[in-house]
Task: structure prediction
Amino acid sequence: MTPKGWCPGALRPMPAGDGLLLRIRPRGSRLDAGQVAVLAEISGIFGNGQVDLGSRATLQLRGIREETLPQVHRRLETLGLLDGDPRLEARRNIMVTPFWRDGCGTQALGRELEAALRDAPDLPPKFGFAIDTGERPALQDASADIRIERAGGDLLLRAYGMARGERVSRGTVTPRVLDVLEWFAGTGHRRMAQAVAAGIQPPLHADAAPDRQAPLEAILRSAPFLFAPFGAATSAALSELAGHALRLTPWRAVLPERDVQGDLWLTDPDDPLLRVSACTGAPGCASASVVTRELARELARHVPMGRHLHVSGCAKGCAHPAPASVTLTGRDGFFDLIPDGPAGGEPALRRLPAASLPDVMRGHLGSQL
Ligand code: SF4
Result:
């Protein structure tokens, strides 16, 4: 079992069923061309070739062998992907929109925020930031406790859970972030949305709402993203993109900065495989008693457009913490079926064997999906 609240990093890898898991947090949610090539190589040589795209624009190398960890760290350090210490690494949870342009100030804001976080109070492990100041808003549904956005021509600082935020200037934005962090550290909450839901108001003026964001489907059609089903890419898939700078996203997709053919990636945002999510499951995760991704692949064709099926190895629901149209949660080698709920929700059907699920999805639940 993974300790509660554990948030893995490159310096603080997490033991998983398939070896160590190293989470890399690329600065500015971007990998340069050289970093892409070397990460593919590291995954192939020192890991099991599995590379996860995380929901916070991170990248996870899986199956790293313990004895090779010093070599992996040395190579990550050469790439500029290793922090000075685990404490700094843990707080550097900064997600940057893929829709930035040279000179728009978004990447500079990310660097400034990273530097400012060195003076921040200790934060809970999953506490994170989104910088959504690109040419159009895109990260409003992504998991981040503090957001820097745009409202008209102004910068906006907003706490997750609040509909409106405070207009800030370029010079005051990071000092105001630090003010909010000092306040948050005293609330005793682990996530901003929990504090707001408990009626505790962040010390921000509610000046304006952020610019309106297009539906995610439209965002995913607006640029040549390359998708990895389940966020599970491979060293071979990454090697295809070697020599190309990549922008990471929270949508299990990367955005190459130049045109590139990726045969091991999906390019159609309407592909049925993108309507299902599934965690690593057994045998990769020690908490799972069921195989998840093979089943999700098999069931994907039963999921109509606009709906979502989540197959979870256990009630933790790592791959999709939010409710899905249908969630199948593994328990003791069987599946519980939860309609319109998260992995830990109340099941409508219990102890379904995996072999029965295609029929269950086609028949009993076909009209609900
Ligand atoms: S949801 Fe999946 S990956 Fe997460 S702990 Fe459970 S089995 Fe493991």
Remarks:
- The radius of gyration is 20 Å.
